[in-house]
Design a protein that fits this description.
Structural class: alpha/beta
Strand content: 15-25%
CATH topology: Rossmann fold
Number of strands: 9
Shape: globular
């Protein structure tokens, strides 16, 4: 199975036998995927939530598992530079087109893996990873802790001394209140044991029509999720989103207090 890292659906996280081929989506259907992403967070809650954690002005940012550039596109107008990294050249092609349309010139895209980052030591102020690191848990199964440790070690390497990491993951598609997917519960506990702070917000989807809602929700989440689409003229699909963050200094302190176990 591919190790590409992108936004998960609850179908994938809770039902490994789901027939939707997300690997194909990430390799071939970036434009359709982006249509879905464009409908999420219609109340624009994400950026203000991130701005409560840190000030973006003047930062060099690495966006891990960028996919079609959701976070890179959101942050580019507010930072000094943003580097979008993903395993899928197809998805990065969509990301590059969207970033190019912003006419900013402060971005780049690179194909690469969380566990072997193509960046120099101490080269970024912020590493942000949205709906992505969770795939190290979902796809690596029993090896996920080791794979996650490798990714965190690489993140630690590229961060500057006062740098920060922000991890964003789903807390439930179709839910009005946060509910940890079974497959990710241990992973979330792992982050919090490492000293990550946590908050959550709503990033609901809003569609232009019921026809569009059914098309896009079925495309990525599957038919069972169709029952969670609202009855409004512009139908809404609830989404709860978790945000975890930590400073590099705090990561180092956690390392020293973990009986010699490195992250």
């Amino acid at each position: 199975m591919s190790k590409g890292l992108h936004t998960p659906s609850l179908c994938l996280l809770n039902n490994p036998t789901d027939m939707i081929d997300h690997k194909k989506v990430y390799q071939q259907e970036g434009a359709q995927y982006q249509r879905l992403v464009d409908r999420e967070d219609y109340r624009e809650n994400l950026l203000p939530a991130l701005e409560k954690i840190l000030t973006f002005k003047g930062l060099d940012v690495l966006d891990l598992g960028s996919g079609t550039g959701r976070l890179a596109h959101l942050l580019a107008p507010h930072v000094r530079s943003v580097h979008a990294l993903d395993l899928s050249p197809h998805m990065l092609g969509v990301a590059a087109e969207r970033l190019r349309n912003q006419d900013l010139g402060n971005w780049q895209v690179t194909a690469g893996d969380h566990r072997c980052l193509p960046l120099e030591d101490n080269s970024v102020d912020l590493v942000v990873s949205g709906w992505s690191i969770c795939y190290l848990v979902v796809w690596e199964d029993k090896k996920w802790k080791g794979e996650l440790e490798s990714a965190l070690l690489e993140i630690r390497r590229v961060l500057r001394p006062e740098g920060k990491i922000i991890i964003i993951e789903t807390l439930g598609t179709g839910n009005e209140l946060p509910e940890e997917p079974d497959k990710l519960r241990e992973y979330f506990g792992f982050l919090e044991h490492k000293g990550f702070q946590r908050s959550w917000i709503r990033t609901d989807y809003r569609f232009d029509s019921h026809r569009e809602a059914r098309e896009l929700v079925d495309f990525f989440f599957g038919k069972e999720m169709l029952n969670n689409i609202g009855k409004e003229p512009q139908p809404i699909l609830p989404e709860c989103t978790g945000i975890w963050w930590q400073r590099l200094r705090e990561i180092r302190e956690t390392c020293r207090s973990s009986n010699g176990v490195k992250i």
